[in-house]
Design a protein that fits this description.
Order of helices and strands: HHHHHHH
Shape: elongated
Low-confidence stretches: none
Helix content: 55-70%
Number of helices: 7
Largest sheet: none
Structural class: mainly alpha
Radius of gyration: 50 Å
Mean pLDDT: 77
Number of strands: 0
Length: 177
């Protein structure tokens, strides 16, 4: 009885594992991508060879500094691991919506700000749109002009007691008698 229960539980966990592999895009990529397998194999073999050269009996510091084959093996392993990382990064993860609207809006606002700051014509049009057209100011007085002070009669003394001089006969605008 116990063996049947264990087999059932093992079967259930195996089914769960298969479902997890099917639903996870990274595990799908690892399970199906032949280039990824090759890159992992090359990285492993190069790293193993580099380790063997490092542990071959020479001083490790001398091997790290002078062994050109060790350098080549390490470079090959690093390049293969980099390719593995790129392959896993390219796995079809959750599909993200491209959010380009915010970026476009930011560029539009920045461009408008520069245009307003640089161009006085654009600045004036913007101010007219926001606050209305600017009114031209022509001053006209709404009050009547001041009444002229009556001139004293000819020959009448002024406040200083001296009679005013008679107007010149040929002055324009003076009545002739």
């Amino acid at each position: 009885m116990k063996k049947k229960k264990k087999a059932a539980v093992a079967g259930a966990t195996a089914v769960e594992a298969v479902d997890a592999v099917k639903s996870n895009p990274y595990l799908q990529k690892v399970a199906t991508d032949g280039d990824l397998h090759d890159n992992v194999r090359v990285a492993y073999e190069s790293a193993r060879t580099a380790y063997e050269r490092l542990a071959s009996g020479k001083s490790p510091s001398k091997a790290v500094l002078e062994d050109k084959k060790l350098h080549a093996n390490l470079a090959t392993a690093a390049a293969a691991l980099k390719d593995v990382g790129y392959a896993l990064a390219d796995a079809p993860a959750k599909k993200k919506k491209k959010r380009r609207l915010g970026r476009k809006l930011l560029v539009l606002v920045a461009g408008a700000g520069v245009a307003v700051a640089v161009s006085s014509d654009v600045r004036n049009k913007l101010l007219d749109l926001l606050f209305g057209a600017e009114e031209e100011f022509d001053y006209t007085s709404t009050t009547a002009p001041a009444t002229p002070v009556p001139s004293p009669a000819p020959g009448a003394p002024t406040a200083s007691g001296v009679p005013p001089a008679p107007p010149a006969a040929d002055a324009p605008g003076t009545p002739t008698t």
